[in-house]
Amino acid sequence: MTKTSTDLPMAIQRSDFASDFVWGVSTSAYQIEGAAAVDGRVPSIWDTFSARPGKIRDGSTGAVACDHYHHWEEDLDLAQSMGLNAYRFSIAWPRIFNGVDAQPNAKGLAFYSRLVDGMLARGLQPWCTLYHWDLPQYIEDQGGWNNRATVDLYLQYVDVITRHLGDRIKHWITHNEPWCTAMHGNWDGMHAPGNKSLPLALQVCHHVLLSHGRAVPLIRANVPGAKVGIALSLHPVEPASDSPADAAAASRHDALRNRWFLDVLYGRGYPAEALALVGEDAPVVMPGDLEAIAVQCDFLGVNYYFPEVVQNAPDEYPLRAEIVYPQDRQRTDFGWEVSPQGMVTLLERVARDYLVGDLYVTESGSSYDDHLEHGAVIDTQRRDYLIRHLAAMRDAIAGGSRIKGYFAWSLLDNFEWAEGYLRRFGLTYIDYPTQRRIIKQSGQWYSAFVRGH
Ligand code: FCB
Hints:
Elements: E1 22-26, H1 29-32, H2 45-50, H3 68-81, E2 86-90, H4 106-121, E3 125-129, H5 137-140, H6 149-165, E4 171-176, H7 178-186, H8 198-222, E5 227-233, E6 237-239, H9 244-265, H10 272-278, H11 289-293, E7 299-303, E8 308-312, E9 321-324, H12 340-353, E10 358-363, H13 380-398, E11 403-409, E12 428-431, E13 436-439, H14 441-450
Helix pairs in contact: 3-4, 6-8, 7-8, 12-13, 13-14
Beta-D-fucopyranose (FCB) binds next to loops.
């Protein structure tokens, strides 16, 4: 029997999963830290971009955000109180290097050192993302990720971080969602730095992937016992109809959306189908690059949010495909389709088509218009979203999938990039004027689940 969107597998429990399953939450520096000019932090491309009129829907920036820089102990207490065993966070490169001193910023390093100690003291395994989109602006001024020299700057930064924190952090994620870095940042211009050029986006993408490939051996050299991976945003792609034209459009879209990353990371080079589509816009690839990118990792992180439905659109360069939004699908308040089955289909496909080894869901979550009423946030839709995704994951594992952990996006409501503070993804509500944190119904459910109640 197929499950309808209203079926709730209430019987799900932690003991359905392995005892060493990783249960965490995910965050990222620019979205929560605030303290944009504190302790020697320099501007990132997101400070610059969000200050430009019209770029962020509510005109906001991450300058204050959740002020996690000053509330980090309270925030780690929240994660601990939920009973979690892991915490995924990112490091702000602009807190570490300022483009003037060759030496790393001691205050920036000290902040992350305290943060990691705080995680360990609370039984939270630190999962560190080295790059979650906040490139220092001074590096962007020298060409950013389009400049191959940025790969070397990234390696210098990674070297410093892993030498400094590698005694305590064993799980490393080189990059968060290179598709977004490259394509939102440089093709559709929705994200920083806001360029609109496909060849530029593809070159950026290549350098980001190259920096990943070259960072993996460096991290391993600096951190004995390190587990290293990358977090990709992947989407199951469905054709809008049974027509051969829509099927071909879906395949083209999948080639650039998913296989552009998976194929090259798993040693097949960029997919021929996508290279044929982009033609002369393909990136410059130097000898040895593809081998470096295809370095074997310890795990793959999958950030899963929604499937994409695609139809043929002859005029759309380069894909000749268009994303459509069928009326009959359940959606969050952000308009993203709710599809736990999509997550299973995606994870099974990745494991079938590539030798990925261990898989972690490094992000999964939903945005709803939450309200604080009488001191509580009753976000039943997010709770149900979580229940249904965990149940889907349980079924996938029963079917043989090597999923080893799940990180809910996100611990806190936060600065949702181009949407500003209009979208709330947190298991914890942030009352921005007072910076008060209130665990939502969904967070209470996750906590009870993880605690085995
Ligand atoms: C992902 C990002 C994350 C957050 C969620 C909602 O694409 O990695 O920072 O914005 O979407």
